[in-house]
Amino acid sequence: MAAVLSGHARVEELERGQRTPTEEERGENISRDASTSSSDQPQWEDIEENPKKSARDMSPSIFQRMSYHTKGIVALLSILILVVCLNTELDPTRPEATKGLAVLLIVGLWWLTEALPLTVTSLFPIVLYPFLGLASPKVLAKEFFKGTSFLFIGGFFVGLAIERWGLHKRVICAVVCNCGSRVDLLVGGFIASVWMLSAWISNTATAVCMMPVVQSFLDQLPPGHHSFKAAVLLAVGWAASIGGLATPVGTPTNGIMLGQFSTFWPDFGEFPFAQFVLYAAPISVFMVWVGFCFVFVWTSKEKVEVNTEVFKQMRDELGPITFEEAIVGLDLLLLTGLWFTAAPIAAYPGWKQFVAPLVDSGSIGLLVTLPLFVMPCASELPESFQQWVGKERCHSKSLLGNNPKHILDWDGIRLRFQWEILFVFGGGAMLAYGTVSTGLAGWLAEQMSKAAVGEFVFILMVTTVVTFVTEVVSNMSTMSIFGSIVATAAQIKGFDPVKMMLVVCFSSSFSFMMPTATGPNMVVYGTGLITVKQMAKMGLALNIAAIVVASIYTCYVLPCFMGSTFASLPAPGHGGGSSN
């Protein structure tokens, strides 16, 4: 306890400007809760070694830190919910809706409290739905693992290859070294680099990889400027979260939205990769700009002198581009090109209908990334090839882990792959299926549709609720719960259901206030250079800005991109056969 209290005292001293952080403190993760023993705290070294941990893995919720009595209370509440719902009828015309509500509330309760890991709770639907007579395990299994899961597997593979061979470090050094000595350009370079990388790599992994580089930059600043340093750290964390919005593989919530789309409208086919980027990238770029402005709103009175030598030195230490970096970079470019051009875009018909009509984004991702498992490293190639390429390009100075024989191998994947996301994907897909098939989504949507509000106010309400719910509930759980309900309500009110699903999808990533809300937030807080008060203050401001921006964008700008693409879609349904 004393260690924890002294940790908070050191943060307060730093915030008041009484002294500068020591070398030890720069890498120390100061406790975020005085009620927790120091042994329970997430250590920065743990985060750096295992970036696949979620924010809630790295910082246990209050429910996880409490005794088994808490799990017992949650279990009793679940039983109470089940008893009440089995003896209640929401709508005589929808006899299964009340049972569907019981499943939704029970899964939501365990997700919210995290009394069990999200991965375990994600398996609840395949137990509850069959026992309540709502859906068979055979049908639910088809929902659990879908094409969207393979899309993320391919995205993870290429992201892990980028991390393994240090390509991300070269990207940020290239950007920052060309920004000169102007502090606004340098911070903008950091944010742009992190944003670009997080569109393809896990948001948490991006923040973990970039944080040592950012801290090296902050270490070069003159003493003081604590508010500026905190603002830069926050901006980098925000950029990692916002960058994930831009592509289907950027964050799991995007994948869940695409999976729900396939479940609700199976006859439409796959949601095109390029179309999603067209819809999501503009708001992602604008939100990064808003976050960048917040840095200088907060620090507008400070004049900061910077020295870019640390990045030039880092760039020189990396040496020339290695053979492995070139292969991974080319692989990413090829993958991006194939993803973007596979489906029709305006008058362009898309290549897959001429080459392989049955492929989807998931199979394309695996087609391009699986060869990395058989591609040998330069050190394993013949001596003559190494001399032709150049010896200096055959030995990476930024390799993560031991010397491998291939660009990717199973040992590296097994330790760093985010397996839990696939479980939450599946659990969310089963929950969405059950919510629609039982009639619960229709009943809830009818209640929401009774609110006599226009489209903009409806979007504003949804964005506000989802943004603040996702501060305490995981992003993936939030999308899983709200996606089907909001889409059905939008259909009843005469709004575009796909647009409303995008509203929920975007808002699920607006988690800027609390350390435990997202992985990047926890990584930033783990530096020990920022307090919860600072994060909550600036995060609340960005949350409000995000709500306003997202509401205006989705109501007035997004329709210009979407046109009438989804105008003919029926009410959200469910493919996959009978539930018996």
Description:
- With 580 residues, this protein is an all-alpha fold.
- It is globular.
- Helix 16 (252-264) packs antiparallel against helix 28 (497-507), helix 27 packs antiparallel against helix 28 and helix 28 runs antiparallel to helix 30 (532-562).
- Residues 1-66 and 575-580 have low confidence and may be disordered.
- The protein is 65% helix and 0% strand.
Which descriptors apply to this entry?
disordered N terminus, mainly alpha, 580 residues, single chain, 30 helices
Number of E-state strands: 0
* Averaged pLDDT: 78
Secondary structure class reads: mainly alpha
Distance between the termini: 55 Å
Q: Which sequence of SSEs, written as H and E, runs from N to C?
A: HHHHHHHHHHHHHHHHHHHHHHHHHHHHHH
**Gross morphology:** globular
Number of helices: 30
Main sheet makeup: none
Radius of gyration: 24 Å
Low-confidence stretches: 1-66, 575-580
Query: Which bin fits the share of residues in helices?
Result: 55-70%
Strand portion:
under 5%
Task: Write a brief structural summary.
The chain has 30 helices and no strands. It has 580 residues and is mostly helical. The termini are far apart.
Summarize the topology.
Blueprint: H1 2-16, H2 23-26, H3 44-49, H4 55-58, H5 62-65, H6 68-86, H7 97-113, H8 118-121, H9 125-131, H10 137-144, H11 147-164, H12 167-177, H13 183-198, H14 203-219, H15 226-243, H16 252-264, H17 273-298, H18 309-318, H19 323-341, H20 352-355, H21 361-369, H22 383-389, H23 410-416, H24 419-437, H25 440-449, H26 455-469, H27 475-493, H28 497-507, H29 519-525, H30 532-562
Helix pairs in contact: 6-7, 10-24, 11-16, 11-21, 12-13, 12-18, 13-14, 13-15, 13-17, 14-15, 14-29, 15-17, 15-29, 16-24, 16-27, 16-28, 17-30, 19-21, 24-27, 25-27, 26-28, 26-30, 27-28, 28-30
